[in-house]
């Protein structure tokens, strides 16, 4: 088990944990939550043995294998599938020793190493690595590309696959969903549910935590507090305590009134009963849990547009893509004020292409796209974080788009995004990904949009900021089109879904549970072609190696058989020795112990017969093993 006793952790002058206590049993799946900077990643570094405790004890079983998702990427020239296989260090060691033994034609070493390879599931390793990569969204041809050909987000997916590839007793995952789309997250959930070891993960995805973990550890006020259940259960438990405070009660009442109004508005316009019920449940859940976030530093709104057109945007018979590459065709989409649309679809199907076209970043390859006279678009995408002026502060960014506004008004507005005091004046170059995302959202919110186009807006945002964004979107009067892997955001802010798949954009009648089932069916339909492509890419050399490995694999079962006979034989001989000790007792031959003597002699006879049979079987197995070794050496 993992046991932390009176633990103190410090980074520089900042004390992160003090007198913290925690016990986790083998097989537990635990979510680690807390404010940014509270010490979650530092605790992971302690468990990996990369730093020592400043006080108290951190105890882990000494024989535990620990796997973790690295944040850096090396071996840039390695092929993606080989990079993932490198995660299994024991496998790579066996393979290296096998190569040496083959070069030396050492039959005994080959027999031993092939048994080790079989025990390590080495013969299926390549297939398992490719399965991991496919689940995380890699096409078969991408698996044969070098690591340095991928963008930063896809390299993080490779690091995640490498961590999953490593056999482990403890798996540490720090924000594993940050660079994943919804499809890959659903696959990862399924994989982690089947993981047999102890899992600890840091995540800002509440639905992901609810699906995967059975406990939450909250890092709060330098302590570690263990809660049973997923993130929703943790929120309820925390809300019960915080709701007793008058400030929490007052804020809850205001949020309840807002949510009830929103639910009424939604009910009046909803056309899909199942989607409506799902949405209402999500909003009621938010109402119930609001007190758990009373200490959130975020509180903002999207400023309302001065004028509105209807429709805001009208796309007819659209042909969308890049250059000469057609991605989507026959796209029909009309956006009216108040529309709430979530885009669903497999990775690479064209969701971002659609949003970029609506935002004006791409021109349609064909069809008709008409924009309303008063259309004001607020567009959020990850590349906009890089477009921020690294030398400018949040205040200067806002002053550039609102030159006539008083400074105090701008500072108050930025405070809702937790840019306060000196932080308003610091250059963006020092900001984290989450802080840059908050600033980008602040600039959009100030611009009075009447159409929000959001492409993965929650990347890098923590749980508190995600809740604040959800509440702000609920209060927004304009239209929203969103692509997100955050299911809670989708359920709480959208009225309908559009499915982007197979070159088309169509209405999706179900909810997110229905989409998960659709996606599973879609993957099954795609699997035959993926398998065929992967098979076609295998070289003759690889086929030859696999054929040779299959032949040598015959050694493994024979060796295991011989070892089993030898183990049974040793056990029988041990029992015989014990009986012989008992028969050496002179008192055993008294008339009163006649029955006991008869039982011992009977057991001795049975065991001797068993010993003779085992010896014969053992010798036969050894002869068969030696004969096959000779055949392999001769063929080599």
TrEMBL record:
CDD domains: ABCF_EF-3. PROSITE patterns: ABC_TRANSPORTER_1, ABC_TRANSPORTER_2. Signal peptide: none annotated. GO terms for molecular function: ATP binding; ATP hydrolysis activity. Residues 548-582 form a coiled coil. Keywords: ATP-binding, Coiled coil, Nucleotide-binding, Repeat. Residues 2-246, 310-527 form the ABC transporter domain. Pfam families: ABC_tran, ABC_tran_Xtn. The keyword rRNA-binding does not apply. It comes from the Bacteria. InterPro entries: AAA+_ATPase, ABC_tran_Xtn, ABC_transporter-like_ATP-bd, ABC_transporter-like_CS, ABCF, P-loop_NTPase. Belongs to the ABC transporter superfamily. ABCF family. YheS subfamily. PANTHER family: ATP-BINDING CASSETTE SUB-FAMILY F MEMBER 1, ATP-BINDING TRANSPORT PROTEIN-RELATED. This is Probable ATP-binding protein YheS. It comes from Stutzerimonas marianensis.
